[in-house]
Structures are given as C-alpha cells and as structure tokens.
TrEMBL record, chains A, B:
Protein name per Swiss-Prot or TrEMBL: Histidine--tRNA ligase
One of the Pfam families matching this protein, by short name: tRNA-synt_His
GO CC terms, sorted: cytoplasm
Reactions catalysed: tRNA(His) + L-histidine + ATP = L-histidyl-tRNA(His) + AMP + diphosphate + H(+)
Record-linked PROSITE patterns: AA_TRNA_LIGASE_II
GO term, biological process aspect, one: histidyl-tRNA aminoacylation
A GO molecular-function annotation: histidine-tRNA ligase activity
Species of the source: Saccharothrix ecbatanensis
Key word Nucleotidyltransferase present: no
Length: 409, 409
C-alpha cells in the first residue's frame, strides 16, 4: 500500500525536477541534541553506544543528515538545489493515532535560496501531491504563518519583550490545546498583562486581517506576505496560530490539515530556515521544505476512502495440464515477461481448476493453459479469467493474444 | 545511483509475480541470537535497551523479520507465496571492500514450498536480474551446492560421524581460505584421518563428477540434483565448496561470483531452509531465497563499467526574460507537467544565458523562453538546448512542440 501511494508522490515530485538522495539511519547523537529540540533529544531518541564508544542515534528526522550532506557537498553543488528523499525515522513515544515509533517520511526541500519563489513552488507541489493521491480541495487545507509576522504581532503589536519571544511563541503554539485560564497565567509569567493578552487574542482571532496591522517593514521581510499578494495566494490560507515546534524554522511555517470531521489533525508540515547547516559549515544555506509521514497519510486516505486497492501481483499465469509440461510453461512465461507482462507459473503441482483460482487471486486476468496434445499441435489455450472465455491459439501468436486480452476494453 | 539500479531489479522481480513487503528496522535482539549465527549475534549486532527495558537490535538481516511476518499471517496466506523486499540492514564490522556498516539489500523468497520448481524460478530470476543490470554471462557465474549432497559426501563417502557434520561443513567452507596444513590439523580433530582427508580432497576436487558418487537416496532428496538433470541445468554450476555460513539453510545453497580478475568475490547468495519460522509457529514453512546487497553490487557494476550515468533531473525548463513573468512561467510549467514532462522553473532571478546553462546541467534538453513582448503576442520561444536552435511557437501549441523536441531523433 505504502509503495503504491509513495510511488505516485515520487512521480509528482520528480516532475518538478527534484533529485532523490539518501542518508544513513545511524548518526552521531549530538546532531539531534543540537537542533531538533529538547523533546526529541531528551525523550524520543533511540540511542546506543557502538563498540568503538561512539554515541549514535537512530535518526528521529532527516533534516540534520540532509544539512550535513548539503554542507559536505556545498562546493560541488549549484545552489539553489531541489532535493527529496524517502526515509524511515524513529521516535520513542507511545504509539497512538498518527504516530508510530518507526515511520517513513518523504522530505522535500529547496536548499540555498531566500526567494519567495521557493514558497510558491513548494505550495504548488503540495497541491499536486494531494491531487495525485486523489484528494479534492474540500478534504484538506494548507495553512501557513511566518515567524516574521508572529514576531511582529508579539513585539510590535502586543509589546512582548524580545527576549521572551520564544516562550511567547510557544504560548501561541499551545493556544488551542490548553484552557484559556492556563494561557492567561502563562502569559502573565511572561510579563504579558491582561490588556496585552486581550490585544493578542483580538489580533490572532482576526485571521487574515492581521496582515493589515503588521508593520510595512515586517511585511516586506515576510515571504509569506509576498506570496499572499500574488497569483499563488489561493494555494494557502494565512493562519497566525501555525507555529511549529522545531527550532530551526525562521520564516514561513505551514501545515496541511485534514478537513474530515473525524480526523481534524495536522497531516504534515514544514517551514523555512535561514541557515540549515550552521553546525557543519560557515556558508549560510537557507531553504524551505517539508516532511510527509506515512502514518498520518494512511489515516487521511482511510477516512476519505482513498486507499488504493491491494496491488495485483501478476497480469497472466501460464499453467500446465500436466506437471511434465513445466519447462514449456517456463519458456512461455519467459516470452511474456520479455514483452513486459508480469507472469507467474505454478510452483506446486495442483489441479488445473485450483491453479486458475489461485492465478485469479494473484490478480491474473489471463491464463495460458498448456496441454500435452495441444502442445504437440503447436497450440495453447488462452483463457480470459474475467470473461471466463477461452480460445485455442497457435504458439507463435500467443504473446500478442495475451497482450490484446490484457488491454482495457 | 542505487535508486536507478534497484528500480530495474524491482521491475524484473515483479515480472515474476513477487509481492513487495516491508518490516521494522528495530527487532527484539533475541531473534538474531537464536538463528543468525554466533558471529552476527556476538560481534556484529547494533543493540540498545529502549526506555521500556527491552533489548532491541538494528536488524543485521531481514530473514528473521520475514519469518515472523510469514508466521503471523500464515492463516491468511495461500502458500506458496512469492515475496520480496528492499531494506537497510546494519552490521558492526570494519568497513572494507564490499562491506559497509549499513547496507541496502533486496531479499527475494518463495515461502511454503519444497518443490525444485522454486530453485529453477529463483535461478532464472537471478539470470534476468543480472541481464537487467547489463551484465553478460562472461561477467559472473552462479554456483550451487546442496546440504543434502554435502552431508552425503561427508558421511557416506568420507565416513565423518553424523554429530561432527557441522564442524566438518565449516571445514569445507574454509577450504580455500586457510593453508592446507591447517585443514589437515582441523580435520584430524574431527576424527578425519589422513586417508579420509585424501578421499575428501579427491571428491571435492572432482567437481560436477561428485554427483556420480552420491547415493541414489541422497540424489533423490536433493532439489539441486533434480535441477541439474533438467532444462534449467545451464543456469547453475555445481560446486561442492559452496557452504554458506548461515545456520538456517538445509538444502540448496548458492552464490553468485564476479568473474572479473580484480574482484573475484561472492556478490550475493542464498539458499533453501526446511523450516524458516520455527521460532514463531509450529507450522513448517520451507522456502528458498537470496539477499542481494547494494555494496557488492556497486563494486561489480563499477569494475565492469556498468554503472548508470547520473540521472537527468528534468526534461525541460521554462525561463522568463524578466522576473515579472514568473507567474506565466509557472503556468506553462504546470501544463508541461500535466503532460508528463519533468519541468523546472527558476528560483533565483538570473540572466537568461546563465539560467539556460543551469537548465542544461540539470538535464533539460528543451527550454521554453517567455519574453514580455512575445507573451503579449501569445507566443513563446522553444529552444532545443542540444541542437542550440530555437523557434517562436504560439502558446496554444507549445506543449506539443516541447514534447516533439523531447522525442529521440
């Protein structure tokens, strides 16, 4: 299932010119402790000490590995570069809806550019990827904010002190998750008084209109604000509550939400970082990207009835009437495979009827039946397993006949 | 590179009707300690204790996971089943030619059958996979033996005691790797006297002819002997020195060897097991399979000059004369992608000439150039980046024009 779904996504991503990369699943533990945030480093890391005494961790996310590879190849790369990967990541946490300890993730990034063209491309790509899954626009929404806008709201409009920016951002991140009294109390600890809190509430709840209150300077520094003024504005909905926890985001942050009433959670998200690879190089490498996990995606496809049918393993089966004809069957199967037809032959001797049932269950729509007397006359039987009809066909013509029968009517 | 090569192999495997599966990279450490052999369990396992106190290991191989999945689904599966996977595995060892700590491996198995039809199919599939990589028959050879034959050589012909079968097999496994005096000494410890040792030497060195000396009973129990009598005999060369260390093999064992003089090592191999999933179910599940690793494969392709060229990321690029035309470029790129053309647009504003060089480097063979005055006249320029020729084309016709230019001449 994941293979089929992900394959469609890879095709879509590659249509935009993204190159595929990969990296090791074990990395030095420090690279996560430095950048991935306290929750991951302290509680969710699968770490081990190898026989050489090195502290290693199973990657909980791909970004630090990508940063190391980008930094290591910075001399050879022509920025901006478009990269994507498909990797398995581990986080030690209680398995729950949408979160398992091992998950597969597609990461898509543009490295080496500050331009809002990146945002537009990434947003457009997300729309195409969702379409490739069969999702229509009523099923999901892309919401975004910008750390530049958030900063302007908190400092310029509400009056939060600059050094309290991080905890104040975290307050907004928790807005919908904790009771209002708790927010008020937490805000007070950050020096946000009642009046300021009301102002914050008012601003956040004005949604799109907040942008009218932001300083022109902040607006001009915000890639998201630029996107929202242009042709791509309908791809994304501004939402000041989008914060995202990971510390390396510095600009645009975005999340795709499922709109299904039973499953109104974030499906995936990403953001812009002004300097990804600071741990590995002095060259500033900005970028923007997102990671899309298989678990939440699977839930999304399930609730919307978009899960693909289990794949048919074969198109055709070549079956002998008598086991002594297995060499002939293998020869015919070989010819079909050369023509691109996925073809099976029996492994265990079995009655013809049973073998045809088995072939159908494996997805075969056509069977080639090889009989002793038929083979002597240089013919085989080509049977349409769906229509339940069969014809005798000269061996010289059987591949064409099978391929014709496999064509959609 | 690996993606391209492996993709060709997946296509070949799927033509035989194998279904793809996957499994977790972390498994309980015990499942390797029970079956993978002492060397892996004691020295090569990356293990860790999770926060729940469980001892886990990064899988060093896929077979035990496959066994668990097969056993867990045995009630639902219709045996025999054809399965394959592509997984990353870890072994802690000194990195050296052909061996790295993390490697990717394709595993291919038929589960649930004792029939020699399995051997024939697996051998044929290996031939097809090697062809798919561009390898010709002078580059490699498939050698096989059978534990049944080995047992008959050691017990019936040489006279080794049955309880010394395992160490005597290991002796043969080490035959080419240690000096003769060492073999003689080790043999003596196993109760093999000089005369018996000479007989063993004689038998092993007679190659294919050994089969003439094996008891009819052993021959009839050997799937490999059956294969060597039939139509598929040219797919494989009998070699009594093939032993393979992994303890679960009980019948046919085989290895593919590179024939290049600089790299005459085993590329990959596999074998037959009479009961794979004994640790997980009482149902006997026999089978046969092999694992093909990326590292040795990479070496093989390199020494034979078969490594594929780095892939071109895009087919076409849509480039504006002026950055203000980016929305139009994106719209044209969207139309090309809908037609299946991998298309990039610029991210950073750049001079046209530079952008065309960049597009060529990304693999684009065609550029669509959008100019202000041309756009007003509803035309664009379609430039063949290889032939360095360009024409003005009405926007309504540009997708056809680009697709025509991308056709191989």
């Amino acid at each position: 299932m994941r293979q089929q779904v992900f394959h469609r996504l890879f095709e879509t991503i590659e249509k935009y010119g993204y190159a595929r990369y990969d990296g090791p699943i074990l990395e030095p533990a420090e690279i996560y402790e430095a950048k991935s945030g306290q929750e991951i480093a302290d509680q969710q890391l699968y770490s081990l000490v190898d026989r050489g005494g090195r502290r290693l961790a199973l990657r909980p996310e791909m970004t630090p590995s990508a940063a190391r590879m980008i930094a290591g190849n910075a001399g050879k790369l022509q920025f901006p570069v478009r990269w994507y990967c498909n990797v398995n990541c581990h986080r030690y946490e209680r398995p729950q809806r949408g979160r398992l300890r091992e998950h597969w993730q597609i990461n898509v990034d543009v490295f080496g550019s500050d331009s809002p063209n990146c945002e537009i491309e990434i947003f457009e790509l997300i729309h195409d990827m969702m379409s490739a899954l069969g999702a229509t626009k009523d099923m999901w929404v892309l919401r975004a904010s910008d750390r530049v806008i958030l900063e302007s709201i908190l400092i310029d409009i509400v009056g939060v002190e600059r050094e309290k920016l991080a905890p104040a951002s975290s307050l907004i991140d928790r807005w919908a998750k904790v009771p209002r009294e708790r927010l008020v109390a937490d805000a007070e600890e950050l020096g946000i008084d009642d009046k300021q809190f009301h102002r914050l509430e008012e601003v956040l709840q004005s949604g799109q209109d907040v942008l009218g209150e932001i300083s022109p300077d902040a607006l001009s520094r915000s890639n998201l604000a630029t996107v929202l003024k242009g042709e791509a504005k309908d791809l994304v909905k501004f939402d000041p509550f989008i914060v995202r926890g990971l510390q390396y985001y510095t600009g645009t942050v975005f999340e795709v939400f499922d709109l299904h009433p039973d499953n109104t959670r974030s499906l995936f998200g990403g953001g812009r970082y002004s300097d990804l690879a600071g741990l590995f190089t002095t060259q500033r490498i900005p970028g923007i990207g997102f990671g899309m996990g298989d678990v939440t995606l699977h839930d999304f496809l399930s609730v919307h009835g978009l899960r693909p049918q289990p794949g048919a393993e074969v198109d055709a089966a070549v079956v002998p009437i008598d086991d002594s004809l297995m060499p002939e069957c293998r020869e015919l199967a070989r010819r079909l495979r050369q023509e691109g037809v996925r073809t099976s032959v029996p492994i265990e001797p079995r009655k013809l009827g049973k073998e045809l049932v088995r072939a159908s269950q494996d997805g075969a729509r056509v069977a080639v039946i090889v009989g002793v007397r038929e083979w002597e006359r240089d013919v085989v039987i080509v049977r349409d397993l769906v229509a339940q009809e069969q014809v005798e066909v000269p061996v010289a013509e059987f591949t064409q006949r099978v391929k014709a029968a496999l064509q959609p009517a």
